[in-house]
Amino acid sequence: MLISDMTWTDLHPGPEDHVVVPVGALEPHGPHLPLGSDTVISDHFARRLATSIGGHVAPTIGYGVATPTQRLGGTFPGIISITGTTFTILVNDILASLARHGYRRLVLVNSAIDNISFLCEAARELTERFPSAQVMIVNWWDVVGEGFRDALARETGTARTDDHHAGMVESSLVMHISPHTVRPEHVPSDGGLEQPRRISYHLYPQPADTATSSGIVYTAAHASAELGERVADQVARQLTDAVRREFAAPLPS
Fold it and tell me: Is position 94 within any domain?
């Protein structure tokens, strides 16, 4: 399943074979989650997807585009990013290599919001170079399902507006997927609800009242491995269904 574990004699994909590329980032996720949380999540869902559809998993792209500090709750150590231009070229080169080897169904599983527009640009460029290729970009949160998220919000009392980066759902996912990397004792007693001023636009430099002391802009209260398992199973099912649905049609001629 993992391309990095194969020999060259194992790699002979046909046009109907799928290849899944996990895409993450390296950046702060509060004091309780690892810097590589996005990458951990993408790896998990990429492997589950490949198992479900019988595809291959390409090596992970673990460096992403820098997230604005207001979304991270301030400036903290651990951001290791690349520019949007470099990221686009990197993704494009990887996709082109996979396409040259014969893959025509390529799925990018992404967990970092600021990667999205650059992934789309790389996908557009690839499909212009290889008209018979199809590229699907899926962010795990896009396939959770609105009804499922609403039900979680009602059950836990955590409003969806308080549940984004390093919040309840993302924290729960990492607690389930990679429990040894989580530091639950570092979550503030109030769950991280410092109530910084939240803005939907971007300001540089970051206004002081939009920063936090912990890096938790939203609340991680009520996060648990049990909840993470439920979310992971839901995402895995919905992700598999989406890929099967979108790639059921014949490939472009």
Answer: yes
